[in-house]
Amino acid sequence: MSAFRHVEAVFFDIGGPLYDDGNFVDAVLTTLDELRAERSLPPADRDRFAEIYDETRNRQQGSLRSALAAEFLGDAGQRGLLHTRTGTHWTHPEGTLHSDVLPCLRELHGRVRIGVVANQEAAVVDALRRDGAEPYVDVWAVSGIVGVEKPDPELFAWALQEAGTTARHAVHVGNRLDTDVRPARALGLGTVWVLRGEAPPSPTAAQLAEPDTAVRDLTLLPDLLFRLPAPETVETSEAPETAETPEASEASEAVGDEGGPP
């Protein structure tokens, strides 16, 4: 039996792995300022916003929108309103697609089915088309289209069905533990944690142990994808030889030379 996972499909989160997560930050700040202005309040304090954002990144759990609603709107129950209004401002301007995305997608094209599994507005499809990524994407599991958000397993199940494969033959690539790595792993998918955007700048050893591997960008992903441990070995091996740490990823690059939040 092979020690490596036989991969037929790879799914990408969008905010962080593909697009700069600053796009979401800009949208939610604009929304907070609008909602506060409607209540005759000054703009949201940027320093306090950054503190809450970083706290959520470091914990890798809990709702950022709830924390922001509680802090700046006075009620965590305003999370839904914040979410709905943010959607009207959440865009991905030209130039915010990470530079390693298209080379990665081109290298994977034809070798596996490629999909996106992301909590995003439907308009993200237009952005990916504009930026040249759309021809490589076979599965569009976008919450704004499908009608369900991660970490709900239904979104992953929908993507697997569309890709015509099973969890044991698929890998999910995301930058959050709570909405990407944990739900995907629970279903049996392989997991790659991309350490940019909403990932913590200095992840703990315990956090790094959760995905099959962690990388700082998508440069090495096309090769790494086919060296992930087979499903049977994931639970029994504490440190698979095929799993790269961020440090190993950076070292390899040096020698040889990747959403929105709940």
From TrEMBL:
<dbReference type="GO" id="GO:0016787">
    <property type="term" value="F:hydrolase activity"/>
</dbReference>
<dbReference type="InterPro" id="IPR023214">
    <property type="entry name" value="HAD_sf"/>
</dbReference>
<dbReference type="Pfam" id="PF00702">
    <property type="entry name" value="Hydrolase"/>
</dbReference>
<keyword id="KW-0460">Magnesium</keyword>
<protein>
    <submittedName>
        <fullName>HAD family hydrolase</fullName>
    </submittedName>
</protein>
<feature type="region of interest" description="Disordered">
    <location>
        <begin position="229"/>
        <end position="262"/>
    </location>
</feature>
<keyword id="KW-0378">Hydrolase</keyword>
<dbReference type="InterPro" id="IPR036412">
    <property type="entry name" value="HAD-like_sf"/>
</dbReference>
<dbReference type="InterPro" id="IPR051400">
    <property type="entry name" value="HAD-like_hydrolase"/>
</dbReference>
<feature type="compositionally biased region" description="Low complexity">
    <location>
        <begin position="229"/>
        <end position="254"/>
    </location>
</feature>
